[in-house]
Q: What sequence folds into this?
């Protein structure tokens, strides 16, 4: 199907569009084929707490059921992969999103609504607010990067239910997400260069900010549990380049329904600042930008609560990690300045010495790591601010437990690439022929970057070639660090090259994938929160 300049099958390319009802005529045909007594049985089940027999044409989700006056409401999935909202009750109904009305007997009507982003936001707020993402404030939680969108959420809900923890369970950044307008216009992905690593296409998951939010809320409605979750527009990055601030505003506008916003100003911090007023000079531009973006957010959100994070955790290119470490005094300065500017910050991600892609390797060891974090925790907690620890994927249990001890479990701890790496591990074990395609594409990407001058890519390739283990496998560092680019790669005309291959996976694969996701997240939560 064509949407603007984009041609995709939405059933195997989820989390791109801002609707999961993409063919109104098809939805009407499928719903009209369902026997009318079935809808009356659905209404009785919702109103009386019973069960509904399965139907070949649609699936109604008990996790979404609600009584709305004299009507029964639910989310339903049709056999073509579309989703709709249904209401069964008296009256013919009205509304701009109403697709179909069918009399079903006993003076009742089936009213069918499109499940687009606007309707879904209004539906969960009014009908099932307990299933909506929300601002959680000082609630400790995991931040879970959802690079594989609909494939990961069943495992996340399972982990949250078993581990009894809260999470920002919808989370990705501009690195992983596109802007829907850009995708529909057929524009190729923007390309960034990361020092040492190589070129990186923005939006490398293929999902969009709008589509990921919608897909996550729909999946939350499907689950039988009641996850306490938020939605994080992660690393809304302000670059030094011309137009960097306006680009950040576009991202915030696209992510207006999110409940958590991570403003990343690492790139515009002046690390060369010196003198008695060093902190003021170092953060002058960054604080002004955060204040401006905060005002933009308040205008978009109106009176709706949201969490706001200042992120300075990343070390810019060519600087040593030790140069970028955040001190407790620096943290207190930032909090004071943010309050003077009336920025409603709830979280801060300082630089604590974590380097992406590796376990903590500081000379002070886990004990010194914990002392550093405890000093920052004391400063932040005294001001009612929660620490956020990013890039936790490759930290081993000892480092995670050090964070847990230092914060007393009162922390927001983020992971992101891990769930995609786990996908590769399961694919390797369950469907090695499918994994081989991903391996070959990853190897080709790493070789291109090595040829273009990336020393890191060259080192990963040398490690693989010298390993004496030539078989394609996810444990090789070249796959671990370069696998992500295959999923959402687009060609020069903005078309997705491989994405559907990653969502056309058999049920037995997904079952194992969800099990491993849950095991991983529960282990992380146990270390960080002492769950």
A:
């Amino acid at each position: 199907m064509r949407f603007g300049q984009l041609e995709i099958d939405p059933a195997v390319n989820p989390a791109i569009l801002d609707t999961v009802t993409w063919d109104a005529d098809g939805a009407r045909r499928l719903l009209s084929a369902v026997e009318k007594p079935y809808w009356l049985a659905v209404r009785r089940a919702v109103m009386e707490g019973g069960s509904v027999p399965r139907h070949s044409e649609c699936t109604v989700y008990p996790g979404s059921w609600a009584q709305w006056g004299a009507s029964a409401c639910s989310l339903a999935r049709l056999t073509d992969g579309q989703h709709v909202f249904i209401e069964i009750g008296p009256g013919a109904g009205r509304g701009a999103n109403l697709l179909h009305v069918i009399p079903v007997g006993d003076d009742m009507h089936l009213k069918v609504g499109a499940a687009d982003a606007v309707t879904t936001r209004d539906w969960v707020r009014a009908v099932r607010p307990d299933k909506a993402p929300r601002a959680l404030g000082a609630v400790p939680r995991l931040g879970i990067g959802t690079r594989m969108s609909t494939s990961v959420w069943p495992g996340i809900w399972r982990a949250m239910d078993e581990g009894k923890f809260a999470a920002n369970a919808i989370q990705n950044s501009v690195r992983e997400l596109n802007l829907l307008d850009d995708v529909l216009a057929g524009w190729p992905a923007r390309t960034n260069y990361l020092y040492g690593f190589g070129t990186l296409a923005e939006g490398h998951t293929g999902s969009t900010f709008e589509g990921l939010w919608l897909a996550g809320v729909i999946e939350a409605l499907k689950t039988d549990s009641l996850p306490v979750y938020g939605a994080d527009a992660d690393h809304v990055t302000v670059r030094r380049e011309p137009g960097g601030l306006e680009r950040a505003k576009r991202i915030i506008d696209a992510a207006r329904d999110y409940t958590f916003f991570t403003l990343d100003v690492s790139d515009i911090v002046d690390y060369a600042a010196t003198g008695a007023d060093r902190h003021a000079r170092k953060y002058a531009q960054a604080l002004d930008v955060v204040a401006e973006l905060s005002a933009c957010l308040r205008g978009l959100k109106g009176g709706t609560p949201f969490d706001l994070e200042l992120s300075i955790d990343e070390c810019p290119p060519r600087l040593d990690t030790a140069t970028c470490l955040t001190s407790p005094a620096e943290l207190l300065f930032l909090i004071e300045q943010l309050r003077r500017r009336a920025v409603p910050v709830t979280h801060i991600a300082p630089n604590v010495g974590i380097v992406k892609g590796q376990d903590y390797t500081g000379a002070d060891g886990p004990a010194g790591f914990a002392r550093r974090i405890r000093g920052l925790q004391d400063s932040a907690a005294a001001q009612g601010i929660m620490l956020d620890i990013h890039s936790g994927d490759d930290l081993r249990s000892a480092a995670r437990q050090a964070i847990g001890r230092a914060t007393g479990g009162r922390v927001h701890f983020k992971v992101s690439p891990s769930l995609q790496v786990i996908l590769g591990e399961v694919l390797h074990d369950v469907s090695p022929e499918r994994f081989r395609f991903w391996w070959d594409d990853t190897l080709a990407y790493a070789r291109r970057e090595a040829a273009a001058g990336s020393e890191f890519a060259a080192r990963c390739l040398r490690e693989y070639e010298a390993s004496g283990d030539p078989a394609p496998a996810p444990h090789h560092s070249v796959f671990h660090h370069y696998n992500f680019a295959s999923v959402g790669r687009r060609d020069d005309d903005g078309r997705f090259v491989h994405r559907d291959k990653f969502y056309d996976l058999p049920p037995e694969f997904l079952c194992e994938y969800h099990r491993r996701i849950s095991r991983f997240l529960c282990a992380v939560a146990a270390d960080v929160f002492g769950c």
Q: What stands out?
A: The mean pLDDT is 95.
